[in-house]
Amino acid sequence: MCVRRCVITVGDLGEFGAVTRISGRLPQGAAVLLGPGDDAAMVSAPDGRVVVSTDLLVEGRHFRRDWSSGYDVGRKAAAQNLADIAAMGAVPTAIVVGLGMPADLPVDWLDALTDGFRDECAVVGASVAGGDTTRGDLVVLGVTALGDLGGRAPVTRSGARPGQVVAVAGRLGHAAAGLALLEAGRTGTPTEERPLGEEDRTGRPAEDRPRGRAGRAGGDDVERLLGEAVAAHRRPCPPYACGPEAARLGASAMLDVSDGLLQDLGHVAAASGVRVELDSAAFAVDAPVAAAAEALGVDPLGWVLTGGDDHALAAVFPAEVRLGPSWRVVGRVVAGQGVSVDGRETGHGGWDHFR
Amino acid sequence: MCVRRCVITVGDLGEFGAVTRISGRLPQGAAVLLGPGDDAAMVSAPDGRVVVSTDLLVEGRHFRRDWSSGYDVGRKAAAQNLADIAAMGAVPTAIVVGLGMPADLPVDWLDALTDGFRDECAVVGASVAGGDTTRGDLVVLGVTALGDLGGRAPVTRSGARPGQVVAVAGRLGHAAAGLALLEAGRTGTPTEERPLGEEDRTGRPAEDRPRGRAGRAGGDDVERLLGEAVAAHRRPCPPYACGPEAARLGASAMLDVSDGLLQDLGHVAAASGVRVELDSAAFAVDAPVAAAAEALGVDPLGWVLTGGDDHALAAVFPAEVRLGPSWRVVGRVVAGQGVSVDGRETGHGGWDHFR
Predict the structure, then answer these.
(1) How far from B142 is each of A58, B29, B237, CA to CA, in Å?
(2) Mutation test of the interface with chain A: which of B105, B144, B256, choosing the one with the most A Cβ atoms within 10 A?
(3) What is the three-class DSSP state of B33?
(4) Are A43 and B52 in contact (CB < 8 Å)?
(5) What is the ipTM of this complex?
(6) Is A94 within 8 Å of A127 (Cβ atoms)?
(7) If you placed Cys at A144, which of A54, A82, B93, B277 could pair as Cys (CB 3.0 to 4.6 Å)?
(8) Is B56 in Cβ contact with A98 (below 8 Å)?
(9) Which residue of A has its CA nearest to B263?
(10) With a CB-CB cutoff of 8 Å, which residues 110-149 of chain B face chain A?
């Protein structure tokens, strides 16, 4: 009997109650031919091939409930999988989610998580087509995304050739800057759920967006920029549409930047049997990254080159391709091996989960 | 420096070492157009639709490393997902696996797990097309299976109609009996990895198979039968081919028995708006289940009707359909609601993970 304060938990709902509650919050798009509620979902695959990627996220390692809201975690977990689909040049159609939860998890948190998954999928026109729930001591998310290539060849990591250019689309260093701020105790406030219409296409909440012209950042501006970096850690903003765009433009190799640009381009170099040369001056250090670097007294380029979790896209194009404004050329492919910045070798610059 | 006894662990390999090691053990079938090593895999979907199911397995809840070998866990985790695909009437094409592991996990265990996934997929001609690894305190497996319907309509839970018959294919009660034996301290020996050729089509190791005629079980026979029940808990043996067969025969509803027959048929009854009537005398109590029941002094029918984890298939067919020898008719569909056994109502007879 609840007298003073009543938090309804997942344990109160039971497994089937939880599944019913989750399913009830999930509209299904046209690509989902059979949604949640059966042994399996059925998703349209008009191309005759399906692109599939899976990720496992564990509380305490990939997110913290005191640093991110349920809504943030849902958006982030969906985003990193949807970005993998985009990085093949495909358009995401659906995700399925295996969800481990402690029995004392508040139902409000589960609702927010579900809405986060729903809203991030909605950005690309995909749906949460099914899933599985089980009990565990921590929140664990097994997310699998499906996508359709629309007849295009998949853009793998192995097609880069000497003479081609390396370009990036999306944010670099934002999430790493945000994480560093959180680790330094600059926690900000987890972003609560809000209707999708209140956000711009970057996924940033309206009140965190830059207003007017940016001059030299004053005190309020600094706090706003730091807040943007923290928000970027909580919710990546992958440039989904740039994936199929790159495939149409003839990209020879592509991946999403999840472990840090240097490490991820190292995969392209190794898979393609080439060397990638980057020019540090070609990178933008965006204002939130610069503000965080100044606040913490570090070099922002480290975050830009080695920070993970922004899920930017890095692609290699023939030199003659005219790239749209979303892409920034940051280097070139030459014969050889490895990755260099300004002519200097780089080692493993990313994040190895097991070391 | 290792002087006395050297157990190579996942932490020694590092993330990329682990991924390389896993990938190297996984042959790819014809349906996998692009295998592990990129942002996503690409799998053939000739039907133009893809069936997809996901499950999350957590150490301590779905398996115990002291009760099951890595090979057992791999086979079981793959089997329960592949069974979901079969239960739609589809043929599995590929799985992807999100794998959380502690750094001190022995590499031998990881190898055996990988081989278990590989071998269970091989039973149905599927492959492990990709995955993701991360560190965690426990072994966590997020498994997603894909399948192709070959132009058939999916067999859902909602098509059962009064006048039709209920039939089951595959084992019932074996895994529950085996779990009860393990919980009672009758642990047996986890089955080690062995080449696929040494097994029969049931997935049981050669030395556990019945030999010659079974009379009244003597002491050795009892131990052998108990061993079979424990082996059934470690490795389910779903009747995969019966799924597409049922679809071709015109099954109106189907699911795999994962939470117990009564509970799972309750889902069919609810989704179809009908009542399912079962006859207890129609069920077989297989010898391992009977032996375990005698050893523990319980009624074996409880395991048959409410035991999960065997991943038998339960389907509803028009009464006039001639079923092959894999199927056993155990009841009928009538107007009404709920599930009865011998005319008596049954409540929730299965297992709710959150209560």
Answers:
(1) 11, 21, 20
(2) B144
(3) strand
(4) yes
(5) 0.89
(6) yes
(7) A54
(8) yes
(9) A16
(10) 129-136, 140, 142-147, 149
DSSP assigned state of B23: H
Cα–Cα distance measured from residue B155 to residue B189, given in angstroms and rounded to the nearest whole number: 38
Nearest CB among A50, A98, A143 relative to B146 is that of A50
Question: What gap in Å lies between CA A231 and CA A128, rounded to an integer?
Answer: 23
Within 8 A of B54 by CB-CB distance, chain A residues are 96-98, 130-132, 142, 144
Cβ atoms of A263 and A351 closer than 8 Å: yes
Tokens standing for residue B207: 């030395």
Structure tokens at A320: 């003659």
B288 three-state secondary structure:
helix
In the block, tokens 């009624």 appear at B299
The pair of three-digit structure tokens given for residue B114, joined into one six-digit string = 């990988």
A79 and chain B in contact, CB less than 8 A: no
CB contact under 8 A, A52 and B94: yes
Taking one residue from A and the other from B, the number of pairs with CB-CB distance under 8 angstroms is 241
Whether chain A has a CB inside 8 Å of the CB on B15: the answer is yes
| Chain A residues within an 8 Å CB radius of B88 | 38-40, 42
- Nearest residue in B to A13, CA atom: B354
Q: Nearest chain A residue to B46 by CA: give it.
A: A48
Helix (H) or strand (E) holding B255: strand B253-257
SS3 of chain A: CCCCCCCCEHHHHHHHHHHHHHHHCCCCCCCEEECCCCCCEEEECCCCEEEEEEEEEEECCCECCCCCCHHHHHHHHHHHHHHHHHCCCCEEEEEEEEEEECCCCEHHHHHHHHHHHHHHHHHCCCEEEEEEEEECCCCEEEEEEEEECCCCCCCCCCCCCCCCEEEEECCCCHHHHHHHHHHCCCCCCCCCCCCHHHECCCCCEHHHCCCCCCCCCCHHHHHHHHHHHHHHHHCCCCCCCHHHHHHHHCCCEEEEECCCHHHHHHHHHHHHCCEEEECHHHCCCCHHHHHHHHHHCCCHHHHHHHCCCCCEEEEEECCCCCCCCCEEEEEEEECCCEEEECCEECCCCCCCCCC
Measured from the Cβ of residue A122, the count of other Cβ atoms closer than 10 Å reads 15
Residues with Cβ within 8 Å of residue B287, at least 6 apart in sequence: B210, B214, B217, B225, B228
CB A335 within 8 A of CB A269: no
Interface residue B330 vs chain A (CB under 8 A): no
> Taking CB atoms and an 8 Å limit, are B154 and A38 in contact across chains?
yes
pLDDT, one tens digit for every residue, chain B (355 residues): 455 568 999 999 988 889 999 999 999 999 999 999 999 999 999 999 999 999 999 999 999 999 899 999 999 999 999 999 999 999 999 999 999 999 999 999 999 999 999 999 999 999 999 999 999 999 999 999 999 999 999 999 999 999 999 999 999 999 999 999 999 988 665 655 544 433 343 333 334 434 333 445 567 899 999 999 999 999 999 999 999 999 999 999 999 999 999 999 999 999 999 999 999 999 999 999 999 999 999 999 999 999 989 999 999 999 999 999 999 999 999 999 999 999 998 875 443 444 3
Query: Which residues of chain A have a CB within 8 Å of the CB of B97?
Result: 54
